[in-house]
Write a structure and sequence with these properties.
Helix content is 41%, strand content 17%. It has 294 residues and is α/β, with parallel strands linked by helices.
């Protein structure tokens, strides 16, 4: 958990983070984006939405620390045919506000997402997650398959393969003592120095000082649970991901979910998806094609 030395410094950190958050929304998200704060048993959840009212809903869950704003390229592209709802995770950096009831378990996460869909009056939606968000999306789909029309997992972590030990060692300093400098060093390593959007990069730096809750940790879904998954599923891996071996993720997913579609984004790393422009240019049409194909 990131901490600060006093109440005044915590306020300053939060104000700086929120200013950076709003800057990404203003600079990168398309005109017509709306924002809503919906109540759940676990606190208030911020949702950034774009696309035609009444279009099929698409829920987007970001990776840890990325915030819902990271989906700006997907919102602009997929919002042409879908009503996109990008969600700030409870307890993670963002504009969601945790309540008195903490999110500590997978059932808590699924109950929280149930409440978010209920608040939006959505009976079922397409669900897309990246990294930790993909892990949440998969568990939610196993929990409530009738509420998920289609499932998209973008370089999913802890779904079909574990973390590479080297990745965890590199991430450890950032996780134990978060700072903007350590975040930048880690991101530069994982992305091989790729150029990321400056406004979002500043927001990611600011997220290092944002007071957060410990993320829910859990095991990968069992083969038995996955064998019951009938929701149409697309799994997209990053060719050069340092989190895990893309080939192993694809091979395991294909074995456990033989009806799922899989593809690898050439040249991409885990953290360049979904915001790096060349990778988004590969990613977005694949997601769109999957969503529009019956």
């Amino acid at each position: 958990m990131a901490t600060t030395s006093s109440g005044s410094s915590a306020t300053a950190v939060t104000e700086s983070f929120l200013a950076a958050y709003d800057e990404v929304l203003a600079a990168k998200w398309p005109t017509g984006t709306t924002h809503s704060d919906v109540p759940t048993p676990y606190g208030t959840t911020r949702i950034n939405s774009y696309g035609p009212e009444g279009a099929p809903p698409l829920m987007l869950l970001a990776g840890g620390g990325s915030t819902s704003t990271v989906w700006f390229a997907q919102a602009a592209h997929l919002g042409r045919t879908h009503r996109v709802h990008a969600v700030d995770l409870i307890g993670d950096p963002g504009r969601s506000v945790a309540g008195e009831r903490p999110v500590r378990t997978v059932p808590d996460l699924t109950a929280w997402l149930d409440a978010v869909l209920d608040a939006l009056n959505i009976a079922s939606a397409a669900l897309c997650g990246h990294s930790y968000g993909a892990w949440i999306a998969l568990h939610y789909t196993l929990h409530a398959p009738d509420r998920v029309r289609k499932l998209i997992l973008v370089d999913p972590t802890q779904c079909f393969a574990g973390y590479r030990p080297g990745y965890l060692l590199r991430a450890l300093p950032m996780l134990l003592r978060p700072s903007a400098k350590r975040t930048r060093i880690f991101m530069n390593w994982e992305t091989a120095g790729a150029t990321l959007d400056p406004a979002w990069r500043h927001l990611r730096d600011e997220a290092a000082g944002f007071p957060t809750a410990r993320p829910v940790m859990g095991r990968r879904p069992t083969p038995e649970a996955l064998s019951m998954l009938y929701v149409p599923t697309l799994i997209l891996t990053a060719e050069n991901s340092r989190v895990h071996k893309a080939a192993r993720v694809t091979a395991t997913a294909t074995r456990l979910l033989p009806h799922a579609r899989t593809a690898t984004i050439p040249g991409a790393t885990h953290h360049t998806l979904p915001l790096h422009a060349p990778d988004a240019a590969e990613l977005n049409p694949r997601i769109e094609d999957f969503l529009l194909t019956e």
